[in-house]
Design brief:
- The chain contains 14 helices and 17 strands.
- By secondary structure, it is of the alpha/beta class.
- The protein folds into two domains: 207 residues, FAD/NAD(P)-binding domain (3-Layer(bba) Sandwich), CATH 3.50.50; 152 residues, D-Amino Acid Oxidase, Chain A, domain 2 (2-Layer Sandwich).
- It binds flavin-adenine dinucleotide.
Length: 429
Protein backbone atom coordinates (compact mmCIF):
# COMPACT_ATOMS: atom_id res chain seq x y z
CA UNK A 1 0.00 0.00 0.00
CA UNK A 2 1.36 3.42 -0.97
CA UNK A 3 0.89 6.07 1.70
CA UNK A 4 1.62 9.79 2.07
CA UNK A 5 -0.12 11.11 -1.04
CA UNK A 6 -0.72 14.87 -1.03
CA UNK A 7 -3.60 15.65 -3.39
CA UNK A 8 -2.72 18.70 -5.46
CA UNK A 9 -4.27 21.24 -7.83
CA UNK A 10 -2.57 22.32 -11.08
CA UNK A 11 0.85 23.95 -10.92
CA UNK A 12 1.11 27.70 -11.65
CA UNK A 13 1.72 27.25 -15.37
CA UNK A 14 0.60 29.38 -18.31
CA UNK A 15 -1.51 26.37 -19.31
CA UNK A 16 -3.39 26.13 -16.02
CA UNK A 17 -4.05 29.89 -16.21
CA UNK A 18 -5.55 29.53 -19.70
CA UNK A 19 -7.31 26.15 -19.40
CA UNK A 20 -10.64 25.86 -21.26
CA UNK A 21 -12.19 24.05 -18.33
CA UNK A 22 -11.42 23.64 -14.64
CA UNK A 23 -12.18 19.95 -14.35
CA UNK A 24 -13.99 18.79 -11.24
CA UNK A 25 -14.71 15.10 -11.64
CA UNK A 26 -15.87 13.29 -8.47
CA UNK A 27 -13.64 11.59 -5.92
CA UNK A 28 -13.74 7.79 -6.17
CA UNK A 29 -15.97 6.49 -3.40
CA UNK A 30 -17.56 3.07 -2.89
CA UNK A 31 -17.37 0.06 -5.20
CA UNK A 32 -17.36 0.28 -9.01
CA UNK A 33 -17.10 -2.32 -11.74
CA UNK A 34 -15.94 -1.72 -15.33
CA UNK A 35 -14.21 -3.50 -18.21
CA UNK A 36 -10.98 -1.51 -17.89
CA UNK A 37 -9.63 0.71 -15.11
CA UNK A 38 -6.80 3.14 -15.93
CA UNK A 39 -4.60 4.81 -13.31
CA UNK A 40 -3.32 8.30 -14.18
CA UNK A 41 -5.05 10.91 -16.33
CA UNK A 42 -2.16 12.28 -18.35
CA UNK A 43 -2.00 11.74 -22.11
CA UNK A 44 -1.22 8.00 -21.74
CA UNK A 45 -4.21 7.36 -19.49
CA UNK A 46 -6.60 9.69 -21.30
CA UNK A 47 -5.62 8.43 -24.78
CA UNK A 48 -6.06 4.82 -23.62
CA UNK A 49 -9.43 5.66 -22.04
CA UNK A 50 -10.67 7.50 -25.12
CA UNK A 51 -9.59 4.74 -27.52
CA UNK A 52 -11.28 2.10 -25.35
CA UNK A 53 -14.45 4.20 -24.97
CA UNK A 54 -14.55 4.65 -28.77
CA UNK A 55 -14.40 0.86 -29.05
CA UNK A 56 -17.33 0.36 -26.68
CA UNK A 57 -15.56 -0.66 -23.46
CA UNK A 58 -16.75 0.60 -20.09
CA UNK A 59 -13.84 2.54 -18.61
CA UNK A 60 -12.88 4.18 -15.30
CA UNK A 61 -9.96 6.62 -15.21
CA UNK A 62 -8.61 7.31 -11.71
CA UNK A 63 -6.38 10.36 -11.20
CA UNK A 64 -4.57 11.38 -8.00
CA UNK A 65 -4.86 15.11 -8.72
CA UNK A 66 -6.50 16.62 -11.83
CA UNK A 67 -6.73 15.59 -15.49
CA UNK A 68 -3.45 16.71 -17.08
CA UNK A 69 -1.88 17.56 -13.71
CA UNK A 70 1.44 15.82 -14.54
CA UNK A 71 3.83 16.25 -17.47
CA UNK A 72 0.94 16.20 -19.97
CA UNK A 73 -0.46 19.49 -18.72
CA UNK A 74 2.92 21.16 -18.22
CA UNK A 75 5.05 20.32 -21.24
CA UNK A 76 6.52 22.37 -24.08
CA UNK A 77 3.52 21.54 -26.28
CA UNK A 78 5.83 20.49 -29.09
CA UNK A 79 4.35 17.87 -31.40
CA UNK A 80 7.37 15.83 -32.42
CA UNK A 81 6.88 12.78 -34.61
CA UNK A 82 7.96 9.37 -33.41
CA UNK A 83 9.12 8.30 -30.01
CA UNK A 84 12.48 7.70 -28.45
CA UNK A 85 13.83 4.18 -28.86
CA UNK A 86 12.46 3.41 -32.33
CA UNK A 87 16.00 2.85 -33.64
CA UNK A 88 16.55 0.31 -30.87
CA UNK A 89 13.36 -1.53 -31.88
CA UNK A 90 14.57 -1.63 -35.47
CA UNK A 91 18.00 -2.87 -34.41
CA UNK A 92 16.42 -5.59 -32.26
CA UNK A 93 13.84 -6.90 -34.75
CA UNK A 94 15.44 -6.02 -38.09
CA UNK A 95 14.18 -5.01 -41.52
CA UNK A 96 10.92 -6.96 -41.19
CA UNK A 97 9.45 -4.28 -38.89
CA UNK A 98 10.55 -1.31 -41.04
CA UNK A 99 6.96 -0.51 -42.10
CA UNK A 100 5.66 -0.84 -38.53
CA UNK A 101 8.36 1.52 -37.26
CA UNK A 102 7.54 4.05 -39.97
CA UNK A 103 3.85 3.98 -39.05
CA UNK A 104 4.64 4.19 -35.30
CA UNK A 105 6.68 7.27 -36.15
CA UNK A 106 3.75 9.22 -37.63
CA UNK A 107 0.72 7.63 -35.96
CA UNK A 108 0.77 10.05 -32.99
CA UNK A 109 0.54 13.08 -35.30
CA UNK A 110 -2.46 11.52 -37.07
CA UNK A 111 -4.28 10.65 -33.84
CA UNK A 112 -3.82 14.16 -32.42
CA UNK A 113 -4.99 15.90 -35.61
CA UNK A 114 -7.96 13.53 -35.98
CA UNK A 115 -9.08 13.97 -32.38
CA UNK A 116 -8.75 17.75 -32.40
CA UNK A 117 -10.98 17.82 -35.47
CA UNK A 118 -13.43 15.06 -34.51
CA UNK A 119 -14.05 16.32 -30.97
CA UNK A 120 -13.61 20.00 -31.80
CA UNK A 121 -10.90 20.50 -29.15
CA UNK A 122 -9.70 24.11 -28.85
CA UNK A 123 -5.98 23.72 -28.16
CA UNK A 124 -4.23 26.23 -30.47
CA UNK A 125 -2.93 23.49 -32.79
CA UNK A 126 -0.32 24.84 -35.25
CA UNK A 127 1.84 23.16 -37.90
CA UNK A 128 5.63 23.56 -38.09
CA UNK A 129 8.46 22.31 -35.89
CA UNK A 130 12.13 23.12 -36.40
CA UNK A 131 15.10 21.22 -35.05
CA UNK A 132 18.05 23.56 -34.84
CA UNK A 133 21.81 23.07 -34.52
CA UNK A 134 23.73 25.02 -31.87
CA UNK A 135 26.97 23.42 -33.17
CA UNK A 136 28.23 23.32 -36.78
CA UNK A 137 28.85 19.56 -36.69
CA UNK A 138 25.15 18.95 -36.00
CA UNK A 139 23.86 20.22 -39.37
CA UNK A 140 24.77 17.07 -41.35
CA UNK A 141 21.96 15.27 -39.57
CA UNK A 142 19.41 17.57 -41.21
CA UNK A 143 20.52 16.66 -44.75
CA UNK A 144 20.39 12.98 -43.76
CA UNK A 145 16.84 13.38 -42.41
CA UNK A 146 15.73 15.13 -45.62
CA UNK A 147 17.24 12.34 -47.75
CA UNK A 148 15.45 9.72 -45.65
CA UNK A 149 12.07 11.45 -45.98
CA UNK A 150 12.58 11.85 -49.73
CA UNK A 151 13.45 8.15 -50.09
CA UNK A 152 10.33 7.19 -48.13
CA UNK A 153 8.07 9.54 -50.12
CA UNK A 154 7.03 11.51 -47.06
CA UNK A 155 3.82 13.29 -48.10
CA UNK A 156 4.13 16.44 -45.97
CA UNK A 157 6.27 19.56 -46.46
CA UNK A 158 9.76 19.79 -44.96
CA UNK A 159 12.83 22.00 -45.50
CA UNK A 160 16.50 22.14 -44.60
CA UNK A 161 17.62 25.62 -43.55
CA UNK A 162 21.18 26.91 -43.82
CA UNK A 163 22.55 29.37 -41.30
CA UNK A 164 21.28 32.44 -43.19
CA UNK A 165 17.74 31.12 -43.51
CA UNK A 166 17.69 30.00 -39.87
CA UNK A 167 18.82 33.46 -38.77
CA UNK A 168 16.12 35.09 -40.95
CA UNK A 169 13.35 32.78 -39.70
CA UNK A 170 14.28 32.73 -36.01
CA UNK A 171 15.90 36.13 -35.44
CA UNK A 172 18.96 34.68 -33.74
CA UNK A 173 22.57 33.87 -34.51
CA UNK A 174 22.59 30.98 -32.07
CA UNK A 175 22.03 28.23 -34.65
CA UNK A 176 24.03 26.91 -37.59
CA UNK A 177 21.07 25.46 -39.46
CA UNK A 178 17.72 23.81 -39.05
CA UNK A 179 15.31 21.21 -40.31
CA UNK A 180 11.63 22.05 -40.36
CA UNK A 181 8.78 19.56 -40.67
CA UNK A 182 5.29 20.92 -41.23
CA UNK A 183 3.54 17.72 -40.09
CA UNK A 184 4.94 18.34 -36.60
CA UNK A 185 3.94 21.49 -34.71
CA UNK A 186 2.70 22.69 -31.36
CA UNK A 187 -0.36 23.09 -29.16
CA UNK A 188 -1.70 23.88 -25.68
CA UNK A 189 -1.16 20.46 -24.08
CA UNK A 190 -3.42 20.88 -21.05
CA UNK A 191 -6.34 21.91 -23.25
CA UNK A 192 -5.74 18.89 -25.49
CA UNK A 193 -5.69 16.57 -22.47
CA UNK A 194 -8.80 18.10 -20.91
CA UNK A 195 -10.61 18.02 -24.28
CA UNK A 196 -9.77 14.37 -24.88
CA UNK A 197 -10.89 13.49 -21.35
CA UNK A 198 -14.19 15.27 -21.96
CA UNK A 199 -14.61 13.33 -25.23
CA UNK A 200 -14.06 10.06 -23.34
CA UNK A 201 -16.68 11.07 -20.75
CA UNK A 202 -19.14 11.91 -23.50
CA UNK A 203 -18.65 8.35 -24.77
CA UNK A 204 -19.45 6.93 -21.33
CA UNK A 205 -16.06 6.78 -19.55
CA UNK A 206 -16.05 7.69 -15.85
CA UNK A 207 -13.28 9.90 -14.47
CA UNK A 208 -12.38 10.24 -10.80
CA UNK A 209 -10.09 13.08 -9.67
CA UNK A 210 -8.36 13.78 -6.33
CA UNK A 211 -8.28 10.00 -5.92
CA UNK A 212 -4.73 8.66 -5.45
CA UNK A 213 -4.56 4.93 -6.04
CA UNK A 214 -2.90 3.31 -3.06
CA UNK A 215 -2.80 -0.35 -4.13
CA UNK A 216 -3.57 -2.81 -6.89
CA UNK A 217 -4.99 -6.12 -5.71
CA UNK A 218 -4.26 -8.78 -8.31
CA UNK A 219 -6.67 -11.53 -9.33
CA UNK A 220 -9.03 -12.62 -12.08
CA UNK A 221 -10.65 -9.17 -11.72
CA UNK A 222 -8.00 -6.92 -10.21
CA UNK A 223 -9.03 -4.16 -7.82
CA UNK A 224 -7.74 -0.61 -7.95
CA UNK A 225 -7.93 0.79 -4.42
CA UNK A 226 -8.08 4.36 -3.17
CA UNK A 227 -8.64 5.65 0.37
CA UNK A 228 -12.43 5.79 -0.11
CA UNK A 229 -13.29 3.14 -2.65
CA UNK A 230 -12.24 0.73 -5.36
CA UNK A 231 -12.79 -0.19 -8.99
CA UNK A 232 -12.88 -3.81 -10.10
CA UNK A 233 -12.07 -4.51 -13.75
CA UNK A 234 -11.12 -7.20 -16.25
CA UNK A 235 -7.93 -5.28 -16.95
CA UNK A 236 -5.96 -2.42 -15.37
CA UNK A 237 -3.64 -0.02 -17.20
CA UNK A 238 -1.03 1.83 -15.11
CA UNK A 239 -0.28 5.22 -16.68
CA UNK A 240 1.28 7.23 -13.83
CA UNK A 241 4.63 7.62 -15.58
CA UNK A 242 7.29 9.55 -13.61
CA UNK A 243 4.83 10.31 -10.80
CA UNK A 244 3.86 6.70 -10.07
CA UNK A 245 5.04 4.66 -7.10
CA UNK A 246 2.69 1.73 -7.66
CA UNK A 247 3.87 -1.87 -8.07
CA UNK A 248 7.42 -1.22 -6.80
CA UNK A 249 8.35 -4.91 -7.00
CA UNK A 250 7.95 -4.80 -10.78
CA UNK A 251 8.39 -1.17 -11.74
CA UNK A 252 10.97 0.47 -9.49
CA UNK A 253 14.39 1.13 -11.06
CA UNK A 254 12.77 1.18 -14.51
CA UNK A 255 11.67 4.78 -15.11
CA UNK A 256 13.49 7.67 -13.48
CA UNK A 257 12.04 11.13 -12.85
CA UNK A 258 13.99 14.11 -14.21
CA UNK A 259 12.86 17.73 -13.90
CA UNK A 260 12.40 19.98 -16.94
CA UNK A 261 11.45 23.66 -16.62
CA UNK A 262 9.69 26.38 -18.61
CA UNK A 263 9.31 30.14 -18.33
CA UNK A 264 6.63 32.24 -20.05
CA UNK A 265 7.18 35.88 -20.98
CA UNK A 266 4.60 38.61 -21.13
CA UNK A 267 2.84 38.83 -24.56
CA UNK A 268 5.38 40.15 -27.06
CA UNK A 269 4.76 43.08 -29.43
CA UNK A 270 4.07 42.17 -33.09
CA UNK A 271 7.44 43.58 -34.22
CA UNK A 272 9.31 41.22 -31.87
CA UNK A 273 7.12 38.25 -32.87
CA UNK A 274 7.85 38.96 -36.54
CA UNK A 275 11.55 39.10 -35.79
CA UNK A 276 11.90 35.93 -33.70
CA UNK A 277 9.26 33.56 -35.06
CA UNK A 278 7.19 34.89 -37.98
CA UNK A 279 6.16 31.34 -39.00
CA UNK A 280 4.85 30.61 -35.48
CA UNK A 281 6.62 27.26 -35.29
CA UNK A 282 7.96 25.18 -32.41
CA UNK A 283 11.75 25.08 -32.06
CA UNK A 284 13.98 22.56 -30.32
CA UNK A 285 17.76 22.20 -30.41
CA UNK A 286 19.48 18.89 -31.07
CA UNK A 287 21.73 18.82 -28.00
CA UNK A 288 21.64 15.80 -25.67
CA UNK A 289 19.86 17.95 -23.07
CA UNK A 290 17.50 20.02 -25.19
CA UNK A 291 16.26 23.60 -25.03
CA UNK A 292 12.86 24.14 -26.67
CA UNK A 293 10.57 27.08 -27.28
CA UNK A 294 7.50 28.35 -29.07
CA UNK A 295 4.96 31.16 -28.96
CA UNK A 296 1.68 30.74 -27.12
CA UNK A 297 -1.58 31.76 -28.79
CA UNK A 298 -1.31 35.17 -27.08
CA UNK A 299 2.32 35.55 -28.29
CA UNK A 300 4.26 34.85 -25.13
CA UNK A 301 7.58 33.12 -25.59
CA UNK A 302 7.40 29.81 -23.71
CA UNK A 303 11.04 28.78 -23.30
CA UNK A 304 12.01 25.50 -21.67
CA UNK A 305 14.97 23.31 -21.08
CA UNK A 306 17.46 21.74 -18.77
CA UNK A 307 17.18 18.36 -17.16
CA UNK A 308 17.63 17.94 -13.47
CA UNK A 309 18.19 14.57 -11.81
CA UNK A 310 18.58 15.83 -8.27
CA UNK A 311 14.91 15.20 -7.44
CA UNK A 312 14.62 18.82 -6.23
CA UNK A 313 13.35 21.77 -8.24
CA UNK A 314 15.73 24.75 -8.52
CA UNK A 315 15.08 27.51 -5.97
CA UNK A 316 14.21 29.87 -8.83
CA UNK A 317 13.11 28.37 -12.15
CA UNK A 318 13.32 31.82 -13.71
CA UNK A 319 17.00 32.23 -12.70
CA UNK A 320 17.70 28.74 -14.00
CA UNK A 321 16.07 29.12 -17.43
CA UNK A 322 16.26 32.85 -18.23
CA UNK A 323 20.03 32.88 -19.02
CA UNK A 324 19.44 30.08 -21.54
CA UNK A 325 16.67 32.10 -23.20
CA UNK A 326 18.80 35.26 -23.28
CA UNK A 327 21.67 33.37 -24.89
CA UNK A 328 19.38 32.76 -27.87
CA UNK A 329 17.45 36.04 -27.65
CA UNK A 330 19.54 38.75 -25.92
CA UNK A 331 17.10 41.29 -27.37
CA UNK A 332 14.47 40.05 -24.84
CA UNK A 333 16.50 41.11 -21.79
CA UNK A 334 13.89 43.63 -20.62
CA UNK A 335 10.89 41.42 -21.16
CA UNK A 336 8.83 40.50 -18.08
CA UNK A 337 8.55 36.84 -17.07
CA UNK A 338 4.96 36.05 -16.07
CA UNK A 339 5.14 32.29 -15.54
CA UNK A 340 7.65 29.70 -14.37
CA UNK A 341 6.98 26.03 -13.76
CA UNK A 342 8.43 22.56 -14.07
CA UNK A 343 7.38 18.95 -14.39
CA UNK A 344 8.75 15.45 -14.27
CA UNK A 345 9.92 13.57 -17.35
CA UNK A 346 10.11 9.77 -17.13
CA UNK A 347 13.53 8.70 -18.35
CA UNK A 348 14.22 5.13 -19.43
CA UNK A 349 17.87 4.20 -19.76
CA UNK A 350 17.63 2.44 -23.10
CA UNK A 351 15.18 5.15 -24.27
CA UNK A 352 12.49 2.63 -25.25
CA UNK A 353 9.17 3.24 -23.44
CA UNK A 354 8.76 0.67 -20.66
CA UNK A 355 5.73 -1.38 -21.70
CA UNK A 356 4.62 -4.65 -20.19
CA UNK A 357 2.19 -6.69 -18.18
CA UNK A 358 2.20 -7.80 -14.55
CA UNK A 359 0.42 -11.13 -14.29
CA UNK A 360 -2.33 -11.64 -16.87
CA UNK A 361 -4.26 -8.42 -16.66
CA UNK A 362 -2.33 -5.44 -15.23
CA UNK A 363 -0.65 -3.51 -18.04
CA UNK A 364 1.78 -0.61 -17.78
CA UNK A 365 3.23 1.91 -20.16
CA UNK A 366 5.61 4.66 -19.11
CA UNK A 367 8.87 6.45 -19.82
CA UNK A 368 8.97 8.57 -22.95
CA UNK A 369 12.29 10.24 -22.11
CA UNK A 370 10.94 13.75 -22.64
CA UNK A 371 9.37 13.01 -26.02
CA UNK A 372 5.82 12.05 -25.17
CA UNK A 373 3.12 14.20 -26.76
CA UNK A 374 2.88 12.00 -29.87
CA UNK A 375 4.22 8.84 -28.26
CA UNK A 376 1.56 8.76 -25.53
CA UNK A 377 -1.17 8.90 -28.16
CA UNK A 378 0.30 5.94 -30.03
CA UNK A 379 0.72 4.08 -26.75
CA UNK A 380 -2.93 4.74 -25.84
CA UNK A 381 -3.86 2.87 -29.00
CA UNK A 382 -1.34 0.09 -28.35
CA UNK A 383 -2.60 -0.38 -24.77
CA UNK A 384 -6.23 -0.46 -25.95
CA UNK A 385 -5.25 -3.06 -28.58
CA UNK A 386 -3.46 -5.14 -25.94
CA UNK A 387 -6.43 -5.10 -23.57
CA UNK A 388 -8.56 -6.29 -26.48
CA UNK A 389 -6.15 -9.16 -27.22
CA UNK A 390 -4.22 -7.67 -30.17
CA UNK A 391 -0.64 -7.82 -28.99
CA UNK A 392 1.43 -7.33 -32.13
CA UNK A 393 2.75 -3.82 -31.39
CA UNK A 394 2.59 -4.26 -27.59
CA UNK A 395 4.90 -7.28 -27.86
CA UNK A 396 7.50 -5.33 -29.84
CA UNK A 397 8.01 -3.06 -26.83
CA UNK A 398 7.35 -5.60 -24.09
CA UNK A 399 9.84 -7.98 -25.73
CA UNK A 400 12.77 -5.62 -25.14
CA UNK A 401 14.51 -6.30 -21.86
CA UNK A 402 14.56 -3.04 -19.88
CA UNK A 403 17.77 -1.76 -18.32
CA UNK A 404 17.44 -1.36 -14.55
CA UNK A 405 19.85 0.28 -12.15
CA UNK A 406 19.30 -1.56 -8.89
CA UNK A 407 19.42 0.45 -5.69
CA UNK A 408 18.40 3.85 -7.05
CA UNK A 409 15.78 4.16 -4.32
CA UNK A 410 18.68 4.40 -1.83
CA UNK A 411 21.48 5.90 -3.90
CA UNK A 412 19.43 8.78 -5.29
CA UNK A 413 19.08 10.20 -8.76
CA UNK A 414 22.73 11.17 -9.25
CA UNK A 415 23.42 7.56 -10.14
CA UNK A 416 20.89 7.97 -12.95
CA UNK A 417 22.76 10.99 -14.24
CA UNK A 418 25.87 8.82 -14.39
CA UNK A 419 23.95 6.04 -16.10
CA UNK A 420 22.57 8.52 -18.66
CA UNK A 421 26.05 9.83 -19.34
CA UNK A 422 27.30 6.28 -19.87
CA UNK A 423 24.61 5.52 -22.46
CA UNK A 424 25.06 8.90 -24.14
CA UNK A 425 28.79 8.26 -24.55
CA UNK A 426 28.05 4.75 -25.80
CA UNK A 427 25.63 6.24 -28.37
CA UNK A 428 28.25 8.74 -29.53
CA UNK A 429 30.87 6.04 -29.93
C1 LIG B 1 8.49 20.47 -18.61
C2 LIG B 1 8.25 19.37 -19.62
C3 LIG B 1 8.32 19.67 -20.96
C4 LIG B 1 8.07 18.69 -21.91
N1 LIG B 1 8.00 19.04 -23.24
C5 LIG B 1 7.61 18.12 -24.16
C6 LIG B 1 7.37 18.53 -25.51
O1 LIG B 1 7.42 19.70 -25.85
N2 LIG B 1 7.03 17.56 -26.42
C7 LIG B 1 6.92 16.24 -26.06
O2 LIG B 1 6.65 15.39 -26.93
N3 LIG B 1 7.08 15.84 -24.77
C8 LIG B 1 7.39 16.75 -23.81
N4 LIG B 1 7.50 16.38 -22.50
C9 LIG B 1 7.20 14.97 -22.14
C10 LIG B 1 5.69 14.70 -22.09
O3 LIG B 1 5.02 15.74 -21.44
C11 LIG B 1 5.44 13.38 -21.36
O4 LIG B 1 6.18 12.35 -22.00
C12 LIG B 1 3.97 12.95 -21.36
O5 LIG B 1 3.14 14.02 -21.01
C13 LIG B 1 3.77 11.78 -20.42
O6 LIG B 1 2.39 11.56 -20.27
P1 LIG B 1 1.86 10.51 -19.21
O7 LIG B 1 0.39 10.50 -19.31
O8 LIG B 1 2.55 9.21 -19.43
O9 LIG B 1 2.36 11.04 -17.80
P2 LIG B 1 1.85 12.31 -16.95
O10 LIG B 1 1.32 13.37 -17.82
O11 LIG B 1 2.94 12.68 -16.04
O12 LIG B 1 0.61 11.77 -16.15
C14 LIG B 1 0.70 10.85 -15.10
C15 LIG B 1 -0.51 11.06 -14.21
O13 LIG B 1 -0.63 9.94 -13.34
C16 LIG B 1 -1.09 10.41 -12.10
N5 LIG B 1 -0.75 9.42 -11.07
C17 LIG B 1 0.49 8.99 -10.70
N6 LIG B 1 0.38 8.08 -9.70
C18 LIG B 1 -0.94 7.94 -9.45
C19 LIG B 1 -1.69 7.18 -8.51
N7 LIG B 1 -1.10 6.34 -7.63
N8 LIG B 1 -3.03 7.27 -8.51
C20 LIG B 1 -3.66 8.06 -9.41
N9 LIG B 1 -3.01 8.83 -10.31
C21 LIG B 1 -1.66 8.78 -10.32
C22 LIG B 1 -0.38 11.75 -11.92
O14 LIG B 1 -1.06 12.57 -10.97
C23 LIG B 1 -0.39 12.30 -13.33
O15 LIG B 1 -1.51 13.15 -13.56
C24 LIG B 1 7.79 17.34 -21.52
C25 LIG B 1 7.74 17.03 -20.15
C26 LIG B 1 7.97 18.04 -19.19
C27 LIG B 1 7.89 17.68 -17.76
Amino acid sequence: MITGYQKQEHTGSYYAATANEITDYPVLEGAHSVDVCIVGAGFTGVATALTLAERGYSVALVEANRVGWGASGRNGGQIINGMSGLKKLRARYGESIADTVWSLRWRGNDIIHDRVEQYDIRCDLKNGYAEVAPKPRQVGYFEETARELERLDFPYRYEVWDREKTRAMLGTDAFHGGFICYRDGHLHPLNLCIGEARAAVNLGARIFEQSPVTAIEHGARPRVRTADGHVEADAVVLAGNAYSRLEPKHLSNLVFPAGSYIIGTEPLPDAVVNEINPLDIAVCDVNAVVDYYRLSADKRLLYGGACNYSGRDPASIKSYILPRMLKVYPQLKDVRIDYEWGGKIGIVLNRVPAVGRIGKNVYYCQGYSGHGVCATHVMGEIMADAVGGTLERFDLFAGLKPIRIPGTQWLGNQIIALGMMYYRIKDLL
